[in-house]
User: Fold these one by one.
Assistant:
Number 1:
Amino acid sequence: MSTPVAAWSRRRAWTVRAVGIAALVSLAATVWLGIWVTPPDQVQHDLVRLVYIHPPIAWVALYLAFGIGALGSVLWLWRRTRSPFWDRLASASIEVGTVFTALTLVTGSIWGRPTWGVWWAWDARLTSTALLLVMELGYLALRRVPGDPEARARRCAVAAIIAAVDVPIVHFSVVWWRTLHQGATVLNANLSPTIHGSMAWTLLLGFVAVTLVFVWMLLVRLRIETLEQALEGAELDEALQERWAEGDTEAALASPAGVGEP
Amino acid sequence: MWRDSVLVAGKDLRIELRSRVVLNQVAPFSLVVLVLFAFTLGPSRAPMAKAAPGLFWVTVLFAAVLAVQRSVSLESSEARDGLRLSGLDPAGVFLGKAMALMAELVVLEVLLGAGVVLFYGVHVRSALDLVAACVAGTVGLAAAGTLYGALAGGLRVRETLLPFLLLPVAAPVLLAGTRAWQAALGTAAGGAGDPWLRLLCVFAAVYVALGVVIFGPILEAS
């Protein structure tokens, strides 16, 4: 650790708190609009209400979190932009992203049971999301291996890039393998959403709310990571001091009169 | 770079020829796996022939994990320092380790392929497609395996961590290799093998290129 980080500045603490409050308010608004205001769907009835939560979580998990993780790793590896911040950002983003990936699978599974009749189907997107989750868990396992922070950062950055390169290949291979999932609704080729009115607005709000939740979690996780590294450094310093102190007493005991001391 | 890669590959293969660990341990292990699969699929040959392409590639993946472990264990911590200090181009070291691994895997695949044909009673429709899929898949596996092997190399938990990291990333090889084999053996209902063969080639090209670029930082980390 080059710069010991004690606490957030007051301004930064308030920014994070504001993001947290905004996330909570927008999430509450999404729940209210999603459950009480918007109408049920003609085909899927009340099940359609999962649309306000599931795609936003998937967007955060599959694109935002993993994207930030990969970007942070590349910026760390690139000599010109190397700074411990990118390593912390990548690790925090992938860790929070793992939670969102798991949530994507859980909400998708809850939606899949009544619509497709099964909890799990070997559909293209499900399979690639599951593989992504396993890769993220692998990254976290690698992250946990103790060792020199610099070597760990390098190892994790490389692992994230190797896995990130695989994601499109996995995606295309399982798309060819089989497909059951419905096509993209909002981001289709001509960018004209195929849902309308209050549902579209609620879905948009859902995206904003879930993204805010992610940003808040990321900031808090980033702070914990920073504090953890500072603590590690401080503990190491303390242990070194103790060892030196021991060495001094031993030397003092070995030569009580201080004979031979320069 | 190429001269360095030939040197490193030669070193790894010479060690293998003298110790015969892959040939005497990993190869019999993969044949044991084939026999175990046969026990689970029952004595009748129809389900075995149907599952043969997938079983072949799953076994190749497991054997590849063992071969990567072996390739990593050749570089003990002193040997790794020696490799770093030798002044060899990191890209050359990567290509050399990957080529040696590939040579070992090809031998394993020939044995396994013969085992599948003999034990599972499959009929080969297009041997050329089988070989092409094997070569493309093996290049990809060897490249990805070498990358992860070096990444996990210096760690004490390497034996348990390596399969966890490597197998999900190698999933496209399993998928595409199986489909390509199904097409070549005529066991799948419809579907040409060509797109899958292309996918295997893309995987191989991507990981070879990535390894050439990124192996320097990995060597520094281990």
Number 2:
Amino acid sequence: MIEVRELTRRFGATLAVDRLSFDVARGELLVLLGRSGCGKTTTLKMVNRLVEPSAGVVRIGGEETARVPGHLLRRRIGYCFQQVGLFPHLCVAENVGVTPTLLGWDAGRIRRRVDELLELVELDPARFRERRPDSLSGGQQQRVGLARALAGEPEVVLLDEPFGALDPLTRDRLQRRLQEIRAQLGLSVLFVTHDMVEAVLLGDRIAVLEAGALVQLGTPRELLRRPANEAVAELMATPRRHAEVVARFLADPDASP
Amino acid sequence: MSDELALLPGYLAAHLELTLVALGVGTALSVPAGILITRRRAFEAPLLGLASVIQTIPSLALLAIMVPALALASAWLEPRLGISLPAIGALPALVALTLYATLPILRNTVVGIAGVDPAVIEAARGVGMSGREQLLRVELPLALPVVVAGVRTATVWVVGAATLSTPVGATSLGNFIFSGLQTRNFAAVWLGCVASAALALLLDGVVRVLEVGLRERRRGLVAAAAGALAVLGAGAGFECFAARGAAAGAVTVGSKTFTEQYVLSEILAGVVESRTQRRARAVQSLGSTVLFDALTQNEIDVYVDYSGTLWATLLRRSRLPDDREGVRREVERWLADEHGIAVAAALGFENTYALAVRGAQARELGLESIGDLAPLAPSLEIGGDYEFFVRPEWKAVESAYGLRFRAQRSMDSSLMYEALARGEVDVISAFSTDGRIAALDLRVLADDRRVIPPYDALVLVGARIAREAPDVLAALRRLDGAIDADAMRRMNAAVDRDGRSPGAVAREFLARLD
């Protein structure tokens, strides 16, 4: 669904992304994993051209993104990021309905779509439609942000640490909700995170980036079993340790960690 | 006071109209300029710099330079586009006040847009807004409360600065202040100050409600504030429209900024109204440089000027004719030849510039003439009105008598006489008809070398009226020789000393005239 070829971005003398190539299949969730500053967010933003590539090509559904005006491209791609950036002067329904409005849908269709999406992210439309963003909790804002990203019926969705600022319980619920939603809608998702556990839980495949270059691309199983180098092994140590501790508790309730 | 209160609605409406139009145009210019700055940072330094520079010009000067600036613009535009701009009246005031309003609105537009949360901007781009949609749907709505806060600052500034638009011929609450200061009518000064302060508070309150409504997204408040502004604007517009309707076709009588001129302008207007079928309207407190230009451009029709002033400042001839009649004839000929201006009457008195000293000091030192003053000058201080020390008459007196004073101070002509009487200065540039010369026991020194020209009070009629309205010319002829120096001095004293209004004094004179 998404083809990325030799994608490169320079900021002045710094090479933020270096000849990156990967594919995201239809219905797949690919995680871009790496430390802060490794170029994963820049890569994501080059897909919907919030950042223009210095070189390289991105194709979505076979069409080269550089041939479409940026804002028209972005109406077809869902986008949600950690700070969410809900429009503070618009109510929840207007926030969710913004892309359909830009696409010129009629009011009835927008209203139905907004209600459908609020239910999908488990916010009661009757209670939340008219609320202002500043009256919502962080988790509720994230869910509105996710609903907004999905409102224009995109086939491709870009998520940049969408659950980063949430408490663990809320994050867990939303992660599971996301898996259900994308299965239901058949979405192709590019997902940026620096949380290794989240990457292992959500990713069909994981691309590990370091200093703007691809270090390893594989399923969570492959990365856990055959890390390409020390750095990947180190990244994978965290989910491994979690799993081991939890497994030990489950096997023998009296064992000490 | 009742005279002043009758003028209040008109002045208030004109003031409000000036303010609202200047703010409206200022906002319409500043907001797009502010948007431009946020889009093209290269414009930031020149545009904000220009607005700041304009802000540093004192508002009175900014208003005053609009007169020659508009005259220049008009002279350039007229042959090319056939557009002629009035250089006095509401237009120069509006241009100056609009410029004055730009800085706070411009700055707040830039700050408001720059202050929008970057996450919100990223979201706006991320959902697929074009630059224009991002501006109109996100940035401007979010910046609006800040922009309106800038409008609020500008509102208070403009209401205040509008009181200074009187000397360029725009009616405002400043008319109370300017004429009140000149005629020592402090009730009128207070009325002007209190009314403009109240207007500033009222508008500030309304715009504040608008700002709070926008910030807290309370539609009711926004609607109430917008409604209040609309009602105020419509009321002022209606009142001004009515006033303009009444003034259309009226003969406009101008006056300079001192008591005698206020009284005379009321007398001229009264004569025109009682002896022709026309209405007349007095436009008072115009700067004396503005007046003559306004007459040549037919923006006013009639005013009183003095032969010596015209001779010295406009004809610029070196040789002074031997007598009063000679100067008058030469001035009359020049006015007719150069500008088509007619002299309808010589009122019958002179109001000369004269150097005056305290009576007691004159007796003590035996001062009779300016010549007697010269040897004492280095130990004395002289006060003059704002223009005196740059006028050619002063230069001539200074060099002819070799006067070198210890210090010279410019002050308002209404304050000079008492400053002299109280000993704060020792010599002043008095007007010979001023009632306070006798009242405060001042002594006018003789011009023994005849340097100061004679100052016959002449009724000047602009070319258009002179050509097209023989009835006005005929009516004004009735005033030829009708006011002698004593009569003028008594009328001035009635205003300056007895606190009567120029209008009342003029009505009394007109009643005796028939």
Number 3:
Amino acid sequence: MTSDFASHLYVFLLAAFLGLEVIKRVSPLLHTPLMSLTNAISAISVVAAIEICGLHKGQTTVLATVLGTIAVAAATTNIVGGFMITDRMLKMFRKREVKK
Amino acid sequence: MTITAAADTTAMFDVQNVIGTATYLLAAGLFVLALKWLSAPATARRGNLAGQIGMAAAVIGALLGHNVVRYEWIVVGFAIGALIGAPMAIWMPMTAVPQRTALSHAFGALAAALVGTAHYFLFFQPGNHLPHSITMGFLCLEVLLGSLTFTGSLMAFGKLQDLLPTRPMVYRGQNVINFVILGAAVAAAVSLVINPALQWLFPVLLGLAALFGVLLILPIGGADMPTVISLLNSYAGLSASMMGFVLGNRLLIIAGALDGASGLILSIIMCRAMNRSFANVLFGAFGQVQTAAATMEKKTVRSSSAEEAAQIMEAAQSVIVIPGYGMAVAQAQHKVRELYDQLTRRGIDVRFAIHPVAGRMPGHMNVLLAEAEIPYDRLVEMDQINGDFPQCDVALVIGANDVVNPAARHDKSSPIYGMPIIEADRARTVMAIKRSMNPGFAGIENELYYADNCLMLFGDAKAVVGSVARELAETAVATSVV
């Protein structure tokens, strides 16, 4: 149990440092889309919510299913909305058009 | 027990498990690539696509999991989420992006808090046993962060949407009360770690954290929103990461850590751009104490007209526009684009100086100007453009205030002393568009407006920029007829 947590802490540490290094390079131009994209990515909690909603009836409670369903809905809102609005924003960033 | 099942990677020849692990691994890799590609506008859309594929892979992996045997509620959740998320993304005007972002942090945090709550109560199902204290510790952190980020983000949304007063709300002993409530929440969490069977205490923990989230945002003013939104972004990510620790799910840990790191970097950039510390932003209640700033002696400003402004700009070789929140409020970006077209058509060099905290969230001005189809190579960061102001003929300030206040450079008594500013005052002529002489958000007088080289254009940003652009268009027609 404890060694599992230790290895998870390593994963967290490495991911955090990787994140810091990669995100430092993001141009300030794109800070708004960066935030909407990372927000969509952190809606990965949907996988845990899916697991709760999908539990066999004998293994779960009504409360857990209700909470799980709301969580799936909330996370899906961020996934669908987050990726779509990020794309909408990124499409707007254009280089100078060639004038005739 | 369901919760450790996700971490169980020892089962051999288990196709479901292999697929699950493979999809999660793929998702983790694609998420990192997504952020890497986002670094430049040329590859950014590819980054977004990578994120989408990663997410789709992870969702498929989750749906194929061992413990997922019922799909009806999952489908209901998907449908509700898509019905809320898609319209928000398609029809939300770009000026409302800060509100949408705050709301999405609330949704993300809500999901984390609810998942944590469900996991906690599932421990008491027959056949399950109480969690290890380490697991319980991470679970408490998850719901603590999730719950306070949920209510905090809703508060931020309320302020950005003008449902709540955007002025800081302060009262005596505010910080003491906040710390007591946070302390009580932490105490509840510690008690739960020691004895996870204290079921009554869990809702108390949720409630205290939610209350703390509300109180934390009360004293935050609009000018501090960029920092606070970034911080809430970081918390929402961290709470997803904590969920990963509870479940032993590495994908959650990684994705949450990436989001947490991103929010952290943005908040550091925002704090630096205001020369303030986190503690000062969160507990300093900016803009409240500075009523003494009214001691400024009465000076006169030079008010000007759209005609005069157009004439001066026509004679210029280079114009630098400094946009601020006022441009967003007035939705003036499309008029700014018309002005930009008129000037560039005459061969005048037009650039935009973007202060990191201009607007209500990081990158807010860039998105608005990009929406108005202003090429992004015209949008220049503060540090890169400040050296060019002495050679600049016209600095046009549109709805920005504190970020161009020269007091930040020399007036030690000013609350914004030391904040890096856009040095618009060094341009030959400064034109500032403002609705009235009311001080800006921080309640600080701006000496720029009283400077000899400054002309004031009073009015709504959209109307004023529109009439300057029209003046320029008319003179263009007149000269072409001649």
Number 4:
Amino acid sequence: MAAELRMSTPEPRPVYWSVQRELWENRSVYIAPIVVASFVMFGFLLSLITLPHRMQIALAMDAAKQRATVSMPFSFIAGFTMLTAFVVGVFYCLDALHGERRDRSILFWKSLPVSDRVAVLSKASIPLVVLPVYIFTIIVGAQLIMLMLSTVVLMGSTQSVAILWTHVKFFQGIIAMLYALIAIALWHAPIYGWLLLVSAWAKRATFLWAFLPFFAISILERMAFNSTHFAKFVQYRLIGWFAQAFNAPTHGSPPVDPLAAITLGKFLSTPGLWIGLIFAAAFIAATVRLRRNREPI
Amino acid sequence: MTETRPMFWSVRRELWENRSLFIAPLAVAAMMPFGFLISTIGMPQRRRAVLLLDPVQQRALIGKPYDVAATILIVTAFIVAVFYCLDALHGERRDRSILFWKSLPVSDRTTVLAKATIPLVVMPAIIFAIIVVTQFIMLLLSSLVLLQSGLAGTTWTRFNLIQQSLILLYGLIALSLWHAPIYGWMLMVSSWARRATFLWAVLPFFTIAMFERIALGSSRFGLMLRSRVMGFAAEAFAFNKYGSIDSLTQLTPGRFLSTPGLWIGLILAAIFLAAAVRLRRNREPI
């Protein structure tokens, strides 16, 4: 009988449903990136009118400049979707543990048999796993549509499609992007961890608590020593992943083969990555402890 | 019985509920004298070198830490005010306190206007006082450091605190008028959006700028936004070649008041605030 009952009732899978809950409650997590990507896409559609003309101009350029011009819309949509996802991730994290205290729903969520650890880890998985996977599919879809439309438009004109296909390495680009998204998630993990910690701790003004200490420290350093080491450190944490994970392009043009630019060994041997991950783990552990004693504000 | 003065108490309520409005600028300001004190090591020697330069450059170099302190505090106040506005009408719906506040005989117009006066009037006043006091403390510290070398007076003459305070006051008023549509927009989003106020406030502009960039290859919209955030300085002041303002003749209120952008912005601000009042009327807890 007991065995039968166990068979008939599905497992509760608390992590899965906690992540689902976050997505239901924070629809901006999936709406914002797709809206931004759609608008950029719409802009791209309008720009198709002048595409043959621009390709004509690009033909006269040298190889590196040509590559930059042709692949610009593709890297553009990828870059801006990633930036949107970062902004969404930051504000999601700031609200994740603060909002449920503020609207008192924490009382309900705590009444469920879901541990604080599961609740916090599922919230952390949104910026670290869910958003990267989600925007990966958006960007791949958008780039595929853009590539096909460009091909159709160029075939309908007197221009040859060869210039497009030689410079836009679609499949290599996808793999390089997947790698970049994983690298960004690992590199930004301490940022999200810190934001979750502030969200669990602050009673009000989460953004100010998260942001002002860093701002104030860099100001203090600037005033006292007229140096900017701390600001450079913050900048490194935000964008330093690129220089570690990829061979930085020499004169601003994208690499011929995106896969050849990947420097996985260098990225994994960067101390900053591992120190960051240790900090992320410490912040998330502190968040779990904090949530245990937190009550509605 | 005394008058109820709903406006006064509504503003008081905001200050009680949002202590970050004065705590954040105070905390940043408290760091300034420490940073400045460390930077005064070796100041007498440097000061002697500076005094050999031409007067305008002397003012620019001697006054630099004071200008930097003022700028940083103004930026802090801007950030605090933006996040205050985004939360002002959203937070009270989210924590359901709107039910209590609406039960009081305070109209929606009074409430929204009280919230709008925080970034437009209260914050500039707070930040003005904080900046003047911070600069005064820094001046005293620099005098103490320079006392032995007999150069203590050089800071006070090159950085005239009273004149600088007048310039600052004018700058803060200009900035507040120039930023009024930004705060109005934030308040409107705050009263309208159910969640993610920051994203609703910022993403539309970001998206339009990106759209223009990829469709037309131009960035006029982005430049328009930039001028809305920082454009006031170019209209309200005539900077000298070192980028500093050291006399009242460098203020150009005439040019500032005749900028169409100022008046268009103020009209937009009024529309946004009117919309926020209307929206609040029908809003309920989220």
